[in-house]
Design brief:
Elements (H helix, E strand, L loop, with lengths): L2 E7 L4 E3 L2 E6 L2 E8 L15 E9 L10 E5 L4 E5 L8 E8 L6 E7 L3 E4 L7 E10 L2 E2 L6 E4 L2
Antiparallel strand pairs: 1-5, 2-3, 3-4, 4-5, 6-7, 7-10, 8-9, 8-11, 11-12, 11-13
Length: 151
């Protein structure tokens, strides 16, 4: 973890729960921000896109999801796949294969919850799932595998 302080031009940023996502010379990071009072005054020339930041924290690729499980949810006619929320993950990829001999392909991306409902299933098939946790720097390796057979 690298901590720095300074000033950052944030013409392109995302604000979420008092955190700002940004890139500095290709190194993504998340940092708490402190607004200069002059910044809030949009008439202050030259400062409307600048923010002071302190405690810049370098964020790496998240760890692979843990606690992966799946089960048939008959009431919803879906396989429900769930996993633990991972630190620094913005979203998740769900990878799926049909049958033990199949090959994995990306089934869903940009999943922001740690639960996914797969309704594109057929009776009698066994579906296998692996997850990846993703953020700006990239995605983790695969999680452990889970499987469920649709009755």
């Amino acid at each position: 973890m690298t901590l720095t302080t300074g000033t950052l031009d944030l013409n392109n940023y995302t604000l979420n729960n008092d955190n700002i996502r940004y890139e500095i010379e290709g190194s993504p990071g998340v940092g708490q921000y402190n607004l200069q009072e002059a910044i809030d005054n949009s008439s202050t020339a030259g400062y409307n896109s600048m923010r002071d930041f302190a405690g810049h924290e370098q964020v790496g690729i998240p760890d692979a999801p843990t606690g992966v499980s799946s089960s048939w949810t008959s009431k919803l006619s879906q396989i429900t796949v769930q996993w633990d929320d991972m630190a620094n993950a913005d979203d998740y990829e769900v990878w799926r294969k049909v049958g033990a001999g199949g090959s994995y392909s990306l089934h869903a991306s940009g999943v922001t919850n740690s639960v996914y409902g797969d309704t594109a299933v057929n009776s009698g098939n066994t579906y296998y799932y692996k997850m990846k946790a993703c953020n700006i720097p990239g995605c983790s390796g695969f999680s452990a595998e889970t499987s469920t057979t649709v009755p």
